[in-house]
Amino acid sequence: MRWKQVLSGVLLCAVLLAAWWAASRKPEPLVAPVPSASVEVADAGVRDVVPPVATREAADAGLWLRATLEGAHPFIGEARVGAAFITDEDLRWWKQGQARGEHAGPSRLEDLANVRGWVTAPVTASAQGGVLGPVEVPPAPRYQLVAFEPDGTFWWGDHVPASPPESGTLDAGVLRATRPTGVRVRLAGARDEAGTFSVRIERDVDPADAERASALLVVLRLVAPELMVALQDGLPVPLVKDGDTVLAPLPPDRAVRLWLRAPSGREGGPVEVPLREGTVGTVTLDVARLFPEGVGRAVTLRGRVLLGQTSRPAGPAVLRTEEGREVAVDAEGRFTVPDVPAWRASRFTVWREEAESGRPVAPSHSEFTFTPTAEMAGTVEVVWRMPVYRWLVLRMDGFTRAQLQAQAQIPYPVYLLQRRDARGAWSDVPTQEFIPEKDNVAVSLLEPGAYRVLTASSPYALRPSTEARAGADDADVEVKLTAEETPAPSCEVRVTHEGRPVVGALVTAGGGDRSMPPVRGETRTDGRWPLGPVRSDLLPVEVQAEGLPAWEGDGVEACRRSGVIEVKL
Questions:
Q1: pTM (whole model) above 0.85
Q2: Disulfide engineering: 80 pairs with which of 107, 118, 189, 533, CB 3.0-4.6 Å?
């Protein structure tokens, strides 16, 4: 019993001591607990946690755009917003025109602004449409807004702030729904035909409404990009055989012309379809009526491309059809092209992938024509041969090359291949390759004949090489260009105005050969610009200086007489 009394006394003392400590402790003010998120942001840089109030307000700062989409039902679709900016060049052009009192270009400066890129904007659906945004945008003089639904209905508009703010909310107002303009295409008599029919579309633009229709193209390219590409590039649009194919939205033109294309590539039409803005009309294309002679047969073209008269393949390469379709040519030169029309000739272009360094063995591309016959059916085998190069080598010693470079003006020196005909006359010959090789130049040839190379240090300073005959079996033939023993006399242009030299006048000089590019330069502080040696019988010169009337004339006679073409502006 005694140990129980001792234990009770100890417990009583502990209770009294705790009560005294609590009573003597000073009360502290209550402090709201600091969210651990703010500590994590400051110390660890964690971005997924909730930031403190000050950080959230900073994140919400900026410029935001919103608009109301007015429709007949809750919005279901996508929206885009584009900030439009004015380039410095457009602004300078517009201001200069306004200062001169010209009326070319838009009346408002903001109409010069163009959208550089579109951003996706959120839309909150409502009972009759929805609310676009708010979406963050950069300060800009103009904004364009586009929203669209799967059936082609779209909303679009411009918003031009009175003065572009740096932050806050811009309200673009109410955008009303625009019903799509278009055509619903049905096919009749195509169910039993193999392959896919397509249709090519041509616009019939009303001149009085052309500007508005063209302005809509930017919007429609966002709403129906594949249809707009087909419309502008003339590409065929595949059609559904057992149902309707909707071509919408289209620009609100006067009409469209439809060309029905059979799987063989044969076209029938055109069928003109009037358009009514805001309506998708229906047209039925009858295959039997549009193809009274039948839709045409097609064959599969299987072939091989070889180099010259050898068995060496021209692959790997790419074979391109008239319609722009590309077919691979493998390393063995083999290819297969399905659905080639058997009722007309087809043209193809083979583009080689030249992997070798130095001189190529053949042209980069060659054209071939496939002409079918009435007996052809199924798969047709062909062998096409690309021509191979033989080479004309223009040889120059180091001194001749240095002399040529010293006289040349950018973009010269230029080389020109010439061939002599049966009468002995020289004429220019197009060629794909002029390859520098140390002091020499290798020029590609495709056929035998007598050749030479014209070397030009400027359009009015051309020198012919010696000539050489390339035979059918020759791989390389050589011609030479030697140094000039008596260089042609040099000439210069001197530009003055009221007896004083004109500095910075633009001089453009050409020669007698139109295939040679002109040279250009600006007069120095003494009003002079050197032409260099002149050997041509024609020397057309043009001189332009800011604020002064332009001058043009032929300078050959002045160069021969004094070596100076005097130009007085």
A1: no
A2: 118
